[in-house]
Amino acid sequence: MSALYPWLVPVWQPWQARLMAEKLSAATLIQAPESSGVENLVDYMARTLMCTSRQNEPCGFCHSCGLMQAGHHPDFHIIAPEKVGKSITVDQIRHINRIAQESSQLSGYRLIVINPADAMNESAANALLKTLEEPAADCVFILVTAHVHHLLPTIVSRCQKLMVTAPSTQLVLAWLQEQGITAPAYALHLCADSPLKARAFMLEGGVEKYREIESQLVAAVAGDMSAQLKCISLIDADLMNHLDWIWCVLTDAQKIQFGVQEAYFTPASALLANRFHYHKLYAQTAALEALKEQLSQFTGLNSELLLLQWFNQFITEETCL
Fold first, then answer.
1. Catalytic activity annotated for this protein (predicted)?
2. pLDDT confidence band for 2 (50 / 70 / 90)
3. Which domains does the chain possess?
């Protein structure tokens, strides 16, 4: 089981049990947050399903396992948008629909993975639905999505459903520790609870970058103009990601004011909770979200000027608790 990320094991086990009991659905829908490592789960499911030893995990030695490792198994197909940001087209789905009706080239399962399934346009989704309504023998579909509400309800209803949820902080910290990475609890928080993002965050010196921004933020909201300019410069280095870090600090501070205490709270959040009234923190959080929306929708905006205005709003009409 070492090939699977530990937070995916509880999702894998019921699917594995159905496979071993020969009760596997013709279509499985995996709901998973982005950057959850779901590709690791899909890969493990695919290698297990295609393995001809028919064990409860891929043997790694049979001909099919060799073909999977080489990326050349004739009965394994992955459907994704042909270009980043584009839809999965009806022609792509019609192609795999034909494959679904053909015989296996290696006398085993045929497996078709659609990831992300919510990228199918309306025509493609309707074309897939026809195949799911009359599934072919020994042909399995795995659909992966982070946005299940974008799928046709009729497609969702025809799938066995698996859900990947955010793992506990303790599990992720232990997983990182096994790899020789000692991370503070707030690292996962800053990475939107994504273990893989947290690992990259730690390996790329994220703690040091965050603490420098946090230090300048604390001074900036106290009215230090040079700290404002320094903080803006640091934020601009990775604008949207660093704005998300600031958002975490502000929301943590608001939670503290409501009596919530969590180990993963950012270090500066307690200081801001003591310095500013809840309404000020709430207003600045809302303004930050509006700023992020502006910057994501309109290219060419002067982010430095917008951030300076945001800081100036923070230090005006300050109300202490």
1. DNA(n) + a 2'-deoxyribonucleoside 5'-triphosphate = DNA(n+1) + diphosphate
2. low
3. 6-165 (3.40.50.300), 205-315 (1.20.272.10)
Note the pLDDT tens digit of each residue in 117-137: 999 999 999 999 999 999 888
Query: Tokens 């404002």 map to which residue?
Result: 228
Give me the amino acid identity at 76: F
Question: How many degrees, rounded to 5, is the angle at CA 281 between CA 320 and CA 198?
Answer: 130
Percent of the chain with pLDDT over 90: 84
Helix or strand (DSSP H, E) at 258: none
- For residue 309, give both structure tokens: 């205005």
- Cα(202)–Cα(134) distance, rounded to whole angstroms? 48
| Cβ neighbours around 171 below 10 Å, total | 15
Q: Is the preceding omega at residue 167 within 30 degrees of 0, hence cis?
A: no
C-alpha span between 246 and 240 (Å, rounded): 10
Angle subtended by helix axes 239-257 and 225-236, to nearest 10: 120
What's the pTM value of the predicted model, to 2 decimals? 0.88
Bridge partners (DSSP) listed for residue 112: 77, 141
Burial class (CB in 10 A: 0-12, 13-18, 19+), 257: middle
CA dist 209 and 216 (Å) reads 11
The C-alpha atoms of residue 6 and residue 282 are separated, in whole angstroms, by: 36
CA–CA distance, 121 with 89 (Å, rounded to integer): 6
For the chain, give percent helix, strand, coil, nearest 5. Answer: 55, 10, 35
What integer pLDDT is reported at residue 185 of this predicted model?
95
- Residue 317: pLDDT band (50, 70, 90) is low
To which residue do tokens 């106290």 refer?
222
Predicted confidence (pLDDT) per residue in 255-293, tens digit: 999 999 888 999 999 999 999 999 999 999 999 999 999
